[in-house]
Amino acid sequence: QVQPVESGGGLVQAGGSLRLSCAASTRTFSNYAMGWFRQAPEKEREFVAAISWNSGIIYYVDSVKGRFTISRDNTKNTVYLQMNSLKPEDTAVYYCAAGPYSSRAPLEYDYWGHGTQVTVSS
Fold first, then answer.
1. Res 31: pLDDT
2. CA distances from 13 to 16, 91, 119, 121 (A)
3. Of 30, 53, 103, 122, which one is least surrounded by beta carbons within 10 A?
4. Residue 72: predicted pLDDT
5. What's residue 1's pLDDT?
6. Which H helix or E strand runs over 85?
7. CA distances from 18 to 55, 87, 109 (A)
8. Of 99, 109, 92, nearest in space to 46 by CA
9. How many Å apart are CA 60 and CA 35, to the nearest integer?
């Protein structure tokens, strides 16, 4: 069983930065690929970034490439999402998820956190 817990969300002005963290309470964290997704009001959940168990495979949605960086520290059971040059359209609840493969598809992930709100003001 894996229970991801997100933190680090908040309110930031456009052009600013935030770093999200996701800590997973499991001894087998390094066995899992991790993904970040987001959901804006009245929109479907959207893939943001994913990272394989050993950081060897990383994916991003095109809209965040060059601005967001996903990373993980298996010694701390934590995955990070560094978000720079934030835009108002990045406003959403950000979710962390764990699964067997680094995938862009939400259905490939078995365990989900409760989310953290990111609000970017213009």
1. 93
2. 6, 11, 8, 5
3. 122
4. 97
5. 80
6. none
7. 21, 12, 24
8. 92
9. 10
> How many Å apart are CA 122 and CA 119, to the nearest integer?
10
Q: What DSSP state is assigned to residue 37?
A: E
pLDDT (0 to 100) of residue 85: 98
d(CA 29, CA 7): 17
Chain centroid to Cα 20, Å, comes to 7
**Both tokens assigned to 4:** 């991801």
Helical spans, DSSP H, in the chain: none
Q: Are strands 10-13 and 116-121 parallel, antiparallel or unpaired?
A: parallel
Cα dihedral across residues 61, 63, 64, 67: positive or negative: positive
What is the mean pLDDT for each group of 10 consecutive residues in the chain (122 residues)?
Answer: 94 98 91 97 96 96 98 96 98 97 95 97 95
Burial (CB count within 10 angstroms: exposed 0-12, middle 13-18, buried 19+), residue 18:
buried
